[in-house]
Specification:
The complex is a heterodimer of chains A (about 550) and B (about 300). With about 550 residues, chain A is mainly beta. Chain A contains three helices and 33 strands. Chain A has a domain at about 300-545: Porin (Beta Barrel), CATH 2.40.160. Chain A has helices at about 1-20, 175-180, 415, and strands spanning about 25-35, 50-65, 65-75, 90-100, 105-110, 115, 120-125, 125, 130, 135-145, 150-160, 160-165, 165-175, 190-200, 215-225, 230-240, 255-270, 270-280, 325-335, 345-355, 365, 370, 385-395, 400-415, 425-440, 445-455, 465-470, 475-485, 495-505, 510-520, 520-525, 530, 535-545. A four-stranded antiparallel beta sheet of chain B has the order 10-7-13-14. In chain B, strands 2-1-3 form a three-stranded mixed beta sheet. In chain B, helix 2 (about 55-70) packs parallel to helix 4 (about 140-150). Chain B is globular, with a radius of gyration of 22 Å. Chain B starts with a helix and ends in a 5-residue tail after the last strand. The chains are: A mainly beta (about 550), B alpha+beta (about 300).
């Protein structure tokens, strides 16, 4: 009690000091994205009534001693077309105050956080995806002894410019066995970290027809084991009954959800091997019962390679948190310098394979008339969602010339991964090749050429892409890019999507101007995806930090 | 400090979950209605839908389920939103599915101006939450608002008396003030049609004989019913509205021909399946404070 009083007193004193004496440190960043939208019927691009749309963010933080505070001002006037229309207007959408005393850290206001790999809880923001589910409430972190971290939080999850009805509570314990028993285990080669988390959502039961749980819990156990060159990570999560609260029996699913992640890695100089699997079943956890993406508060890590080349990512894998079984294997090998294949600088080869399929008979389902539990492991005969087999070879040819080659074979279940009616599109099978060459003309001047080809009979048909980029470091860059959908079965849709960009960079400030056409499609980051509409217009982006 | 914190963690863990055991459905879920007044509180659910929207039938089912819970209190309007999901297929294209144009000028006005052209299916319950943006509700959010609205006092009643013969006539509306009310209110009167058998995408299937119910056909009045800002208990306000069904139907056909991708296929109204819905709403907040429905031909 005495310590609590000291804490409040110290906090108050610091806040007053903050107001009177600006001897702390300010830091932050600014980001602006502006785009014009012109009508282009050939690609289905719509004109914006406002002509110009704009997203801007300003983060300002202040730190003094053990006190941290800050806010983010967000402006959507109006939001870019690939953002949800619910983002509209201006406001301070994020504000926080954190204080550290003894081994306790207190945050009031907004915060982002995660338990384990996010299976039961992940509060984060990604501007490119238009996601921000920051929490508004109180978070405490306590470090009673070396190797032990305790965390608890309570709050509401952000939904655009408001907060969800559900109240989210969470507890997490992270235990580093080797640190806690430092003396006894100092000679032990194996390092073990254990974690246990629980998250619960409260939402009032207003449904007169069905009994609904007002407090829905999800919990997870995780373990990390390091042994020399080997590393294992496993996380096992369960979500208790979480029906959506509909009035029809068919829609209320009282089944438990479950999620398992396993990965094992071996790495040594010049060689890395990893194998991963995950199985998720009815594991979407939301800040309210309602099924809608803006309420999701957990995250299922993607189980496929996150490609950076445009055509390799044209058909990206969106994680199906309600049910999928997947596996991924990676091998990285560097052929040594001075060998026949390694040449003067060595050659890097990455081989990756991932495959994701549905669960047998669909996800778990339980109500008064249905009781279905899918098999724990089922691969053969299950509906294929996605697969990707790719090889990447990076070769530095001489001091001026570097090259990268990628060849991939992908299967993409467009109906499932884009939420379309089954049978509408089916599976898109594609072969993709990429050649990426960088040549340093002279000091500070680099030219980069990318040639990409995607061959398929399904979807939009075959694509070609070319990119020419010229960089004058450290300040300037110029780029021309064209995507050409030459294989589209509809001759009117055999279109070019050309983009022209240039930018200036100085210190922490980057200004870029561009013009071009963007195709409608799916954009994903880490398995989380959104639909992007086609567009045609100029864009300006400015970002800086201080 | 340490023991207090551990205790706090334990409390959070122990009281944070509950498991429901079968049976999940409540055995007797009928809810009594307050009939102490001559009028009962009625609630308007405006459902935004489209015939090519695969998830929209599930929202219609939710509306039906809420209606089944409170049959005396729920009145629904299905508004076919003006977006790509409601665009009719050109009539010359074979097969002839999805050629009907359900869109209406009033429906488009509400969808674009109040619902801000949001994704569908979504709906409004008495338009609660406007203009903060909380009025655009997913189907699973409707019931919570209904439960809150049911608890509200009945401040006025509406009586609708249609007198229609041979597709034309008059509708008399009586607004009966029960409690004193302050504010600026408007009256809206619309026609809806039930049992329209036409195409609809339902989940993974294209259904050619889907039953579309309470489909918005037209608005016949949407304005102030009085210049007053203060209404006293006992006030009775009469409003008389003339209408001609053929003319109203022609307006929809003309509208369909005038908008992008329209085809003029917006007729074939069946007067025997039509109802009149009248509702009173606040002209500033758009909140609907009372709503009433009767059959157009008064044969119910």
């Amino acid at each position: 009690m005495k310590k609590l009083f000291i804490l409040i007193f110290t906090l108050s004193f610091n806040i007053i000091s903050f107001a009177q004496n600006n001897s702390g440190q300010f830091y932050g960043d600014f980001d602006l994205n502006m785009q014009t939208y012109s009508e282009d019927r050939s690609i289905g691009a719509e004109e914006a009534d406002e002509i110009l749309l704009n997203n801007a963010y300003l983060n300002i933080n202040y730190r003094k001693g053990n006190l941290y505070t800050g806010l983010r001002y967000e402006s959507y006037l109006n939001a870019l077309l690939d953002f949800d229309k619910e983002y509209q207007g201006n406001g301070i959408a994020y504000k926080y105050l954190t204080y550290k005393i003894d081994n306790l850290e207190i945050t009031a206001g907004n915060y982002y956080d995660q338990i384990g790999s996010g299976l039961i809880f992940r509060s984060y923001e990604n501007k490119r995806l238009g996601i921000d589910n920051s929490m508004d409430g109180v978070r405490l972190k306590y470090f009673p002894l070396r190797g032990l971290e305790l965390k608890s939080f309570i709050g509401k999850s952000r939904t655009y410019f408001s907060y969800s009805d559900g109240i989210i509570r969470g507890v997490d314990i992270n235990l580093s066995i080797n640190d806690i028993f430092e003396k006894k285990l100092k000679d032990i080669k194996t390092k073990i970290i254990l974690g246990q988390g629980i998250v619960s959502r409260y939402q009032k039961d207003n449904n007169p027809k069905f009994n609904l749980p007002q407090n829905v819990a999800a919990y997870s156990t995780r373990v990390t084991i390091n042994y020399g060159k080997w590393k294992y990570f496993g996380e096992f999560a369960t979500k208790l009954n979480d029906p959506i609260g509909a009035l029809t029996i068919e829609e209320n699913n009282y089944a438990k959800g479950s999620g398992i992640i396993n990965s094992i890695t071996y790495s040594k100089r010049g060689l890395g091997i990893s194998a991963e699997m995950h199985r998720v079943d009815h594991m979407e956890f939301r800040s309210v019962r309602t099924v809608s993406k803006e309420y999701i508060i957990n995250y299922i890590p993607a189980l496929s390679k996150q490609h950076t080349y445009t055509l390799l990512g044209l058909y990206p894998c969106a994680t199906q948190s309600e049910g999928e079984f997947g596996m991924q294997f990676d091998v990285f090998y560097k052929i040594k310098k001075g060998t026949l294949l390694g040449g003067k600088y060595g050659t890097k080869i990455s081989l990756n394979f991932s495959r994701i399929n549905g669960l047998s008979g669909g996800n778990s389902f339980l109500n008064d008339s249905i009781n279905h539990t899918p098999a724990f492991i089922s691969i053969k005969d299950e509906e294929l969602y996605f697969s990707d087999l790719n090889i990447e070879i990076y070769k530095k040819i001489n001091r001026k010339l570097r090259s990268n080659f990628v060849l991939a074979s992908q299967y993409y279940n467009k109906d499932v991964l884009e939420g379309k009616t089954r049978g509408t599109y089916g599976i898109v099978k594609s072969i993709i090749g990429v050649v990426d060459v960088q040549y340093r003309i002279k000091k500070g001047h680099t030219i980069k050429i990318e040639l990409q080809e995607l061959l398929t009979e399904q979807g939009d048909g075959a694509w070609s892409m070319g990119l020419l980029e010229y960089t004058i470091s450290p300040n300037w860059f110029f780029a021309i890019q064209d995507m050409y959908n030459w294989g589209n079965k509809d001759s009117e849709k055999q279109l070019h999507y050309a983009n022209y960009d240039f930018g200036y960079i100085k210190g922490a400030t980057r200004i870029a101007v561009g013009y071009g056409k963007k195709r409608a499609g799916i954009f994903c980051v880490g398995g989380v995806c959104k639909e992007v509409p086609s567009s045609n217009g100029f864009n300006l982006s400015i970002s800086t930090s201080f | 400090m340490k023991k207090y914190y551990v205790l706090y963690l334990l409390i959070l863990c122990l009281f944070s979950c509950e498991t429901i055991e079968a049976p999940y459905m409540v055995e007797n879920s009928s809810v009594p209605v307050d009939t102490s007044n001559n009028y009962i509180k009625k609630i308007l659910i405006e459902e935004f839908t489209a015939h090519k929207c695969a998830n929209c039938p599930s929202a219609a089912e939710q509306l039906k389920a809420i209606y089944d819970l409170y049959p005396q209190q729920i009145i629904g309007i299905a508004i076919h939103a003006k977006n790509s999901f409601s665009t009719p297929t050109p009539t010359q294209v074979s097969p002839s599915g999805f050629t009907y144009d359900f869109r209406t000028p009033f429906g488009s006005y509400i969808y674009e101006n109040i619902m801000e052209s949001c994704p569908i299916p979504q709906g409004m319950v008495n338009r609660i939450g406007y203009p903060e943006g909380d009025h655009k509700l997913l189907k699973t959010q409707w019931l919570d608002v209904v439960e809150n609205e049911r608890l509200k006092e009945v401040n006025l009643g509406i009586q609708i008396n249609p007198n229609i013969t041979s597709n034309s006539g008059e509708i008399n509306i009586l607004i009966d003030i029960i409690n004193n009310i302050n504010g600026s209110y408007k009256l809206a009167v619309v026609l809806v049609e039930n049992n329209i058998i036409n195409w609809q995408i339902n989940g993974d299937f294209e259904v050619n004989n889907y039953e579309h119910n309470h489909v918005l056909r037209t608005s016949i009045y949407n304005d102030f019913f009085s210049s007053n800002l203060n209404y006293i208990s006992g006030d009775k306000i009469n409003k008389s509205i003339s209408l001609n069904i053929d003319n109203l139907q022609q307006e929809n056909i003309t509208y369909s021909n005038s908008i992008e991708d329209g085809n003029g296929n917006a007729g074939e109204w069946n007067i025997n399946n039509m109802s009149i819905i009248a509702y009173i709403y606040n002209s500033d907040t758009y909140e609907v404070i009372q709503v009433e429905e009767v059959k157009l031909t008064n044969t119910l």
